[in-house]
Amino acid sequence: MKWRNKKFTFMVIPDANSTVRRFQLSAVLLVAAAAFLIVLLAASVTIFLLYRANASQIGQLKQELSSASGGYEKVIEDKNEHINELQTDLADLSEQAKSINNRMKAIRNLESQLKEMVGIDDSDSDSSTPASKRPDASSGDDSEQFAMDGGTGGEELPITEAEMELLVDRTREAFLSLGEQIEFMKPELEMTKEAVAKQQKLLAVTPTIWPTDSRRITSAFGIRKDPFTRRATYHAGLDIGGNTGDPIYAAADGVVLEAGYSTSHGNNVMISHTSAVKTHYSHMSKITATVGSKVSKGDVIGELGSTGRSTGPHLHYEVILKGENVDPHPYLKATRRSE
């Protein structure tokens, strides 16, 4: 322990002309100072190593945070894009609902036109469905019927939440309305189909077509001056002028009752269409129909001529309703192509 009492002298010589300074330090103090320096150095090294390790971890954390932040931003961007796509899809659905609604209106109009074509009263089928429960096919603002082949434009503005909710509600209501219309239209269309089928059967046996290609009426139905006697007589049909050999058509579906010759009618054919309706064709140059045969509306039954009591080539055409001759002219509504 003697070293503790030793003293060490340190001299400091600033320059040649300056006074020499001496310092005496005990061994203990020197050891303590050395130990302090060692501890300080060790602490500095430790702090440096910890700082470097923490700096590395902090850098890694920053990188991870940056990566996570970028991932979250990408997720948010994808979600926003998905929301925009959903909004666009919803807008498309809304347009589809309007388009389908317009098509439903067109179907109803077509149904009405079909009924009108075959002579069905449109109010008959509608009366089977109460007005309070029947969806209005003409409902909706006509201004919402767009012509998609024209130009469009305007400023593009973001959609608010309230506007999207309103669009969702309107689209939902539109599709619900379409569902109701479809449900009500199903039985109505079935009824229309049945009515049209019945009407078609009725039209098939109703003499609605011209029996000749010619439309030239040479003598009307009713009282006229007889071409032979020049006296007032009753003319029971229509005389339609034409050329010898022109085809003569059955005015409706039916069965041939008579096909032969008489002095007054010449070569003539009578067809029974129903128990109440018959047609008679006279003065033909040739008969192609046979008694008892079935004919369809528009079938050729003979050729136009001037046989019997006739002044020239023509068809004398009669419509007989419940045994009485009636004016055929009101029945002549169609050609063979639009019967």
TrEMBL record:
| Database matches in InterPro entries | Cell_wall_metabolism_enzyme, Dup_hybrid_motif, M23ase_b-sheet_dom
Map out region (Disordered) in residue numbers: 119-156
Keywords, in A-Z order:
Coiled coil
**Which residues lie in coiled coils?**
76-110
A Pfam family hit? Peptidase_M23
List each copy of the M23ase beta-sheet core domain by range.
234-328
Q: What is this protein called?
A: Peptidoglycan DD-metalloendopeptidase family protein
